[in-house]
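Notebook, bench 3.
Goal today: get a predicted structure for TIGR04255 family protein from Brevundimonas subvibrioides so we can plan the truncation constructs. The sequence was checked against the plasmid map this morning, with no discrepancies at the termini. Length recorded as 257 residues. Pasting the sequence as submitted so the record is complete.
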Amino acid sequence: MSRRTYDRAPLFEVGISLFTEANGLVDAYDIKGLHDRYRDIFPNVEKQLPIIAGTNGTPFQVTGPEDDHHRWWFVSEDGRDLVQVQTNFLGRNWRRQSLPGGDMPPYGGFSSLLTSLEDCWGRLTASITDAGRDMPEISRVEVFYDNMLPYGDGVRIRDVLEGIALGTPGPVSNFQLAWSESLPNSASGHLQIEARAVHATAPTGEQGDFIRLRFIAKDDASTLEEALAILNEAHATMTDRLHSLTTEAYRATWKAS
């Protein structure tokens, strides 16, 4: 399927991650030194609870407050771009910071996000090797693709999602679908898909009813080159599924350009 650009795309957040089997990506005693490697792009910093990865196909879970292996976010000035680091994990995210329905805020596209992840990995590698430590090897990857599809005001769920025949004209309660698929051309990759009716509030205070259509792909990888190729192909699969799961009439409201 050919890629199209939408002026009012429903993209809410996208994130790509590299995991290592061994710990050692972060020196907890020198977070400032690590941040210095990224400060020119991501000047702000936040501390978050860590995430842990189970086997492929299992959702990530947030650890309890007793765990001291924190996840650090280095955040851009506008808050939309960030890099995440913890002892066995590096992630690169773009987040909308507003609710979909209006024009898209600046977003360079998935290719630019991949390029940035590669740059962030290179900076992390330099930080580790300059400290005389060995760089842990990549073991697995993840990409998530989070879309918020406005509905209500006469727009029914079946007007949004292909093949859904709910008849109510307004927002519904407890609508949720979730399933897993295999990633094409992969022996170990999984794609998780979830559609859920939500009422959302943005940091700006705006509110609305949405179908949150979220894709999460996970696969094994052993090199950076392999990881980037898997992430790129998984994202292409997700965008294809976004199109196949939404109606043509609804996509027309995204204003292709």
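The CA atoms of residues 166 and 226 lie 42 Å apart. The chain has a mean pLDDT of 87.
Flagging this for group meeting.
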